[in-house]
Amino acid sequence: MFSTPSRTGSKRPTAQRTATPRVGTPSHLNPAVLVRSPPQTPPFRPATHGPSPARSYATDQGSDFMEMDENHGREDLRSVLNADTYAQWPELSVFLFSTLPLEVQQALKSNDLERNDYLGVVDEDISYALVVSEHTTFVWNCSVRGGGSSTCYIFPNPEPSSSTSKIPSTPPMASLVPRGASREPGLVLCSAAGEIRFWNNIATGLTGGEHFQAANISLSTSEVIVQLCRCEPSIFIAGTSLGRLFRLNVSSSAGRPHVVVVPFVKARNMLSRVASTIFSSVPISGNDTSIVSIAVGANTGIQDGREVWSLSQRRAQKWRVSADAWDQLQLDEDLHTVLSGEISRKLFNYETFGSELALELIDLGVPQPDHIVILLSFINRTSKVDAMPAARSFAVTRLSASDGVFRVLSLDILPYKGTNQSTLHRPRIFLIDGGAVAAVKFKEAFTVISLAEGATFQATLSLKDPWDRVLAIGRRINHPPLTELIMMTASRGLLTCRLDLPKIQRSSLDTPTQHLRSTMEQAVFFGSITENPFLFQLDPSTDGNLGAAAEQLSQDILASRSDLLRPAIDLRVHLADRRARLTHLIKFIIENGMIGQLSQITRQRLRLDSEKLFVAENLWSFHNRRLADGYPDASRSLLVQAISNYMLSIGGDAGEDLVRLFFRTQIGNIEVIFEELQKVAENITASFDLGAGGIAVVSESTRILLNMWESGSRHRHAEAALYGVDDTKLLVSLWTGEPRQIKVAQFFLEATVRALKEEVASEKNASSTVHEATNALRFQLKELATMVLAMWQERHDYLASNASDPESVTALTHFREHFKTVRPEILRALVRWGGVDTAYTLAEDYWDFRFLTELCNDPVHGDPSRISTYLERHRERFALPLYQWYLENGQLRNLLEPQARFVPLLEAFLRTNDYPRIQWIHDLAVSRYDAAATSLEGESRTETKLATKHVILSISKLCTLAQHVDMDSEPVLSAIQGVDHELDSISVHERLMAEFRAALMDTGDSGSSADAMSEAVSFACGSSLLRDQPGLVTVFRRLTRRLFQGLVLNNEDLSEILSLKDHSSQNDDFVEALRIVAFSKELSEGRLLTSLRSIWRRLYIADDWSIYHDTANMNDEQLDQSLRNTLLYTSLHAMLHNDDVPPTMFLSPRQVLEPPTTAELVTRYPGLTGVQISEIEGAYAWENQQMQTLLREHNLESWHEKVVAIEQRDRQVSS
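Above: the chain's sequence. Below: its structure in token form.
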């Protein structure tokens, strides 16, 4: 696993800043598992170290190692990291130094490292390394980069303990014995049982190492050796599980090796203290006395000796050890209680310490005199919620021991968590730069943390494979400011961890998002390396914005801003490498199971960045091919000109290779090539008549555009699944869907069409070159049309996906309307210039079914056989515009005679579009007579042509009769009666026309215009009311003109004209008028009453009531007969005799006195001027005055009653 360098903001992190340890098989080993386990090493913080102190060698041995020369120390990192770099930040980089010797590789591969332990040592003083197994020790010189073929010295280990022994069977502890630069070192091995083997020179390992000096350490029952540390080149210190220390002096005399073992004299003081605590109130576990670490401070002089520290689970001891075999215990203190309290207070806010922390002291280092750095681990047991082994947190604490009292200076949590590890693989701390930086080796991880005050750098690298191990860590002394650590791994051998110490100390605070970005950057550039032993993982619990981090990294790679991008002279390699990095980025996120944290916007932006690199890669290849093949003269280097113009416009240097610079740094703006090409083409074509040169320019520019668009489109669709993009919701505008790019594409499409037109116009005199280029343009036109329509569609999809407010909805609506206009124009251009098949395809692809309909029925390019296919494939989407086109072009037969399987489509069209005029024909064809009658009846209400309405009503009546068998049923009679009333109205129209035309025959005006005939009729056939009232004349002429035009009068108008005409030749006009109004369904109650008043008022005025003023010379019989001759009697008798007018339709003289208002007249006579309305209003007022005169002077009310009585009597007599 991997944790990027982190800069935490606090020197005292809280306990919540933890991570989950790896459990079980890592997901990268299981192809079916895409979700990786959470990272073990969340970011945390740092402490200090001193001058390359010696340390314990239970598992490894750190040392200053292989001093670099000045030039090597200052070499460019990139030259080192290109080949075998596994991780790189400004502060830290890791790369392969050398592989293990073949013998070591074979031994490691042939053993299960979970069952068979191996130890490693990288000796910092003598440039040698060793690996120790249970039975064999391997030593080799590791000063040369590369390795693998180094001479390997092999030695037999002390015999392991018997199976009955309580001493664990583990590899012995090992250390090399320095012999100077000119001699090979010696080797010391010490087993857990205390058996020592000493080789004065490792050269004997070439012959099996059978000759050695043996010695034994006298141990108590169940006591074992657990630590071995080199104090001086020939002095070693061993520590036991019971807390005892032994000095081992190795030497050579006369070529014979010697080993002297001496126990520390004052060690018994420690044992006595331990014994005294056994009976104390605080319980101490059996392992509390075991030495866990021995560290050696700087040499303070021969007389004073060296400062040596030993650490047990509870206590720390400080010794003064001299070279002349004396030792002195100077300090012995219990640290367990002090450190437990410190952790409780600073991390968990406990005032007092309990046993819940399970504190464990692991290792120590000595940065300077009277100062130590301790590596420890703990667990808050109160937070454990299950029986699983709880993950332990690790921390580094700095303590001062001046005046014999320990004081805690700092406490820093490591960005790592893990479970308890065996004694053999206990974590080890390594101090750098006087304790300013610490490196900690875990079994499967390696952590670097800054311990200096105010510094925040920390990083953890974890091994990828479960079987792999970090065997050892050593240090190379380098020229400042660089320091190199050497890490030995089982899988890859020796790795160099290069640290830039000033940058580490200056490292700034990382936000969670920056931390995520750093993690992904390492994974992108190094995670895909098969040989990389480290595992890169994202922390799913991070608070950072994964989308923002991914976008930042993607943009940096796109613009070549990442320092990790490898320089490449070959631009194709450079572009391919950048695109591969972006592919690694999205795959890494997917493998970590965090793709769900990326929004659709982020996914589309990431895909867009990758798409632009793909376009650039293909465009560069296209450019190279064109250069190799040779451009046409007029279009030579169009791409170069376009790119150069753009680069100069943004401040590029004309002396540079602007094209390559563009492809390295400006791919994010690759769409500008479209616009620049248009500018170049416009400038060049202005110098030509679009002959050979102009056509070549247009053709070559088009090739470039098509290459770019096709590459982008291909990548976009191919990578949609990888990025998890929903292309139905386009939230990010595509570079090919920008308005400026669409405009450029249309420019070249129009230029291509223009070139084709000019070529046709001058075809006879054109050169063969022009003909060849023109043929190419014809082919390119098809591709251009495809591209332009696709770009329009992309823009539409983007606008549609983001139409969330009125403004954006309006913009989308306008765009759609514009698209509907542009699309058929492009398709028509295709048809004209030989792209008929392409036009068919594109019209179908973009659902332009109106154009598809027109093309199918085109007399030249049409293919009616396609119609059935499109109907079958697209159903209503194609059927509706097809049938509409049939209607508009009068092809009713094609419309109304569809194939049987398409009848439902026709019916859907008729229902959707409400075409009753043809609907009834289809209904008759399928024997739906009731539906046909209903359609015809509805159509008759809106029909304005008299003759047509007559036909419609007649067919409607026939349909009604055809539908029913029982003609006497109430529904049938009611339906027929309704049609009959309408037909009666038609008969009245025809009677009036016949009457008026007969009158016109007498006047000789029958062949005049409708206006002239209506004027003539008003004189010939108008009633006496018209003579004195111009308003009524206007109304009469208006209505008769419509009659002469063959138009239908509504019931209100028809009753009006009947009441205004002359009644001398026809005395049933008022009866017809009343019947028409009575059966009218179109009049409101108010309008009905107004019409009735007008009819009755004119009926009363039509008779001469003045003759009844003096009836002295008339007997009753004569008077009754005279009244029977009035229009009033005739009309009443006709209506009452037939009994077809409701009683409410009869109005007495006083009921007709109220004339219509001005507002009613304006509504009644739309289109008339105000003057005309005033004249009509005056006419109605005059009629009202006439009625009042008749009532007042001629006793009309009495005569009305008399006429009604005569009619009733006559009707009774006749019955």
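The chain is about 45% helix and 15% strand.
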